[in-house]
Write the structure tokens for this entry.
Amino acid sequence: MNKKIIFGLVGQQASGKEETKKYLAEKYNSKDCKFSASLRDILSRAGIEISRANMQKISQVLRENFGQNILAKIIAKDAMSLDSDIVVIDGVRRFDDIEYLSKLPNFVLVAIAANPELRFERVLKRKENVGDDTKTFEQFLKDNEAEADREIPEVMKSAKYTILNEGTIEELYKQINEVIKKLS
């Protein structure tokens, strides 16, 4: 690969962004940065429980006080500083993010999609945030309507590539490889 490619991954909770990111790291030696990393860091340093609700609150406070694209500015700086031919930005979710990130050289938005039932099963299994393992399907669907997640379906429509992650892990990897091939 002769140019740095920056993948912006957009997808609803548990669609497969993390698995896509891991595969790109293993197969293509990519490096990554995640929108929620700075939010988790702030909450951890403040001794506040790292939950989806608390990450949404801190994100909203930052954006309201420092501009809607403040997190995109942080992540763009992180992405450009990484020494890798492929950089993955995990957790793109707003048009303000896209507007800022699309100015980066060789930025490509990739949507990762999966049906709600499958995504719910994944959330229950991975227990990433406090309370995930006790969530009902109705609560999970309501989470997708939260302020932080509302724009995701529309942002996904603006992606250059869409990967449907409802099959085997091998099928996911094949789709990722096809996108890489098109960009190489």
Remarks:
- The CA atoms of residues 37 and 54 lie 13 Å apart.
